From TrEMBL:
GO terms for biological process: DNA restriction-modification system; methylation; mismatch repair. It holds the Pfam family MethyltransfD12. One of its GO terms (molecular function) is sequence-specific DNA binding. Its EC number is 2.1.1.72. Keywords: Methyltransferase, S-adenosyl-L-methionine, Transferase. This is site-specific DNA-methyltransferase (adenine-specific). It catalyses: a 2'-deoxyadenosine in DNA + S-adenosyl-L-methionine = an N(6)-methyl-2'-deoxyadenosine in DNA + S-adenosyl-L-homocysteine + H(+). Belongs to the N(4)/N(6)-methyltransferase family. It is an enzyme of class 2 (transferase).
Length: 297
């Protein structure tokens, strides 16, 4: 949000900082679930990333369970680690120094994942996410390699607060399922076996224009086309899909249920961004103050 001309990064229940994260949509998505009278809701994110919305909805008990999926093995290892190896993860968090020498060690793990365990990869993902510019795993460290900047590598690494977030999420682990599939495969393998009346799905694919600069696993044009066919086949489900504003995506998702909306967004460029929102035939949009619905396309 923007207060007195200053951009304030939204508070999130997720321990991860995620480029393109949509935590600010949590209020809107909760309204969607309520408006469509989805009882005992299973909330699904095929492109989970930091899963900020999923964790907020679960921890405030707005949904019964969440299923989070990400094709990025690093992100998958992080979520598996904090849920299944919580104590060991917390021990690493407490004992690992946050400095540039450690940054190089954790970067090596990411570059040689076949040599390390799920826990080691998961912690490395977390460490680099918290210490890299914009949370981009493949990016450079906050403060630069020389650490001569005003902001140092540990400025986003409040151990006490991060431990608190992780422990709270882990206390809900029986209500969290984590998978590691391509989203199109995930639709066929998982979503199509879920109860249509009790499921809400939030598709947040890699951005069309900036995806290659933000994500490890970005999509080509053909990937976006293939995904759209899978999503649009879910006619009887409740879902929304968000994208960056691009002519190509509007042409790919050539359906009547699409709008432009604005979200106060602070991930890459600091701006109030206009983005695309698509929704299924079954989904009714609420009257909302959480986002600015500008128009039909």
């Amino acid at each position: 949000m923007i207060v007195m001309g200053v951009i304030i990064i939204p508070v999130t229940d997720s321990p991860l900082r995620y480029p393109g994260g949509k935590t600010q949509l949590k209020g809107f998505i909760n309204e969607l679930i309520q408006t469509n009278s989805i009882k005992d809701c299973t909330y699904v994110e095929p492109f989970a990333g930091g899963a900020g919305v999923a964790m907020s909805l679960l921890l405030t008990e707005k949904v019964q369970e969440v299923i989070i999926n990400d094709i990025d093995s690093s992100i998958y290892c992080f979520w598996k680690s904090i849920l299944e190896h919580t104590d060991n993860f917390i021990k690493l968090l407490e004992e690992t120094p946050v400095n540039i020498n450690e940054w190089y060690k954790q970067k090596y793990i990411q570059e040689n994942k076949d040599k390390f365990s799920v826990l080691e990869i998961g912690f490395s993902t977390f460490f680099l996410n918290r210490t890299n510019r914009s949370g981009i795993i493949t990016g450079g460290p906050i403060g630069g390699y020389s650490q001569h900047s005003q902001y140092k590598i540990d400025c986003r690494f409040n151990k006490k607060n991060l431990i608190k977030k992780i422990l709270k999420i882990a206390s809900y682990k029986k209500q969290i399922t984590v998978t590691n599939d391509d989203a199109s495969v995930f639709i066929d393998k998982v979503i199509k076996f879920l109860d249509k009346d009790k499921t809400f799905i939030f598709f947040d694919p890699p951005y069309y224009k900036q995806g290659k600069h933000l994500y490890t696993n970005f999509y080509t044009h053909d990937d976006h086309v293939h995904l759209s066919k899978k999503i649009l086949s879910l006619k009887d489900y409740y879902w929304i899909t968000t994208y960056d504003l691009s002519k190509e995506i509007m042409e790919i998702y050539n359906i009547k249920n699409q709008k432009i909306y604005r979200l106060n967004y602070s991930a890459n460029n600091k701006r109030k961004a206009a983005e695309l929102l698509f929704y299924s035939e079954r989904t009714t949009l609420p009257e909302t103050n959480h986002i600015e619905l500008i128009s039909n396309i």
